[in-house]
């Protein structure tokens, strides 16, 4: 049973209550917008947080006010014994919402147990419904398995949010077919501005498909999109289309229009704390855990990091060291 947690605020008055926890940096796909074709240099196993270290950190954060945990990767199901770990997380006092982000390739066999554990929401990464384009984007021919996972999640009564990265010249023809899934199914389909986290050497990019153009394109085909009121902390602007069961969402991940109410923290698979997707990491939690720091010292270090949080993603990006003009692979960050 969850218990009431205190509310911790950062130095800009934003509550911090949502942790995105990367359980691995490994992935079974090679999406070109996330990593190079040859993949990235994965961390040695001993440099990854153990499940026990993750549980301890989540417990400390729950004592500081975190109530929601989303498991990410890499691909979470690449790591063995993930489902038992979820079960243990669900017993931590104060944590009342556990969810997942997955590419769906390895997920289907675990869905009955996820439902039993009370997983409310699964974010499914899916950039196209066309098998050939899926293979080109991900460099793997796995679309049938992903779709099997999609329908199995719906059958199990787990809410599905599809996340699709919008990429000029790659999957623009897929935006409308993906959005059309909301016509007859109770799903959210969310379109995400492309970001520079591909493990490459470039920094700032120009994105021809920003959130304004994405909405305009969808309205040309679906008709007027009616905005739905957002809650503080929401990254997506949600809309309904006439006659549709589900919702369409647009995430201005590169334009960064939602930073003012951001309530998210990120813990990388190697134990690095990020208080913004665009920062370079602000605290080595793994070092604290492995040098024997008591929970009180870990909590104090975390709270101190929260008091020096960037106001938005642009400030966090400006604060990156000059030698970090390139960006990590999203696989190492945890989404």
From TrEMBL:
Write down how the cofactor binds this protein: Binds 2 [4Fe-4S] clusters. Binds 1 [4Fe-4S] cluster coordinated with 3 cysteines and an exchangeable S-adenosyl-L-methionine and 1 [4Fe-4S] cluster coordinated with 3 cysteines and the GTP-derived substrate.
Q: What name appears for this protein in its UniProt entry? A: GTP 3',8-cyclase
Which SMART domains is this protein grouped with?
Elp3 (SM00729)
GO MF annotation, one: GTP 3',8'-cyclase activity
The pathway is: Cofactor biosynthesis; molybdopterin biosynthesis
Q: Detail which positions bind [4Fe-4S] cluster 2.
A: 259, 262, 276
Q: Which domain of life is it from?
A: Bacteria
State the reactions this protein catalyses.
GTP + AH2 + S-adenosyl-L-methionine = (8S)-3',8-cyclo-7,8-dihydroguanosine 5'-triphosphate + 5'-deoxyadenosine + L-methionine + A + H(+)
Instruction: Give the UniProt keywords, A-Z.
Output: 4Fe-4S, GTP-binding, Iron, Iron-sulfur, Lyase, Metal-binding, Molybdenum cofactor biosynthesis, Nucleotide-binding, S-adenosyl-L-methionine
| Gene from which the chain derives | moaA
* Coiled-coil stretches: none
Q: Which residues form the Radical SAM core domain?
A: 11-227
Q: Where are the transmembrane segments?
A: none
Protein's job: Catalyzes the cyclization of GTP to (8S)-3',8-cyclo-7,8-dihydroguanosine 5'-triphosphate.
Q: Where does GTP bind?
A: 20, 70, 101, 161, 264-266
Stated EC number for the protein is 4.1.99.22
Q: Where does S-adenosyl-L-methionine bind?
A: 33, 74, 125, 195
**Chain residues that bind [4Fe-4S] cluster 1:** 27, 31, 34
Q: How does it assemble?
A: Monomer and homodimer.
Q: Which GO terms describe its biological process?
A: Mo-molybdopterin cofactor biosynthetic process
Question: Which species?
Answer: Hymenobacter aquaticus
The record's comment on protein family reads: Belongs to the radical SAM superfamily. MoaA family.
> Signal peptide: which range, if any?
none
Q: Which InterPro entries match?
A: Aldolase_TIM, Elp3/MiaA/NifB-like_rSAM, MoaA, MoaA-like, MoaA_NifB_PqqE_Fe-S-bd_CS, MoaA_twitch, MoCo_biosynth_MoaA/MoaC, rSAM
**Cofactor (UniProt):** [4Fe-4S] cluster
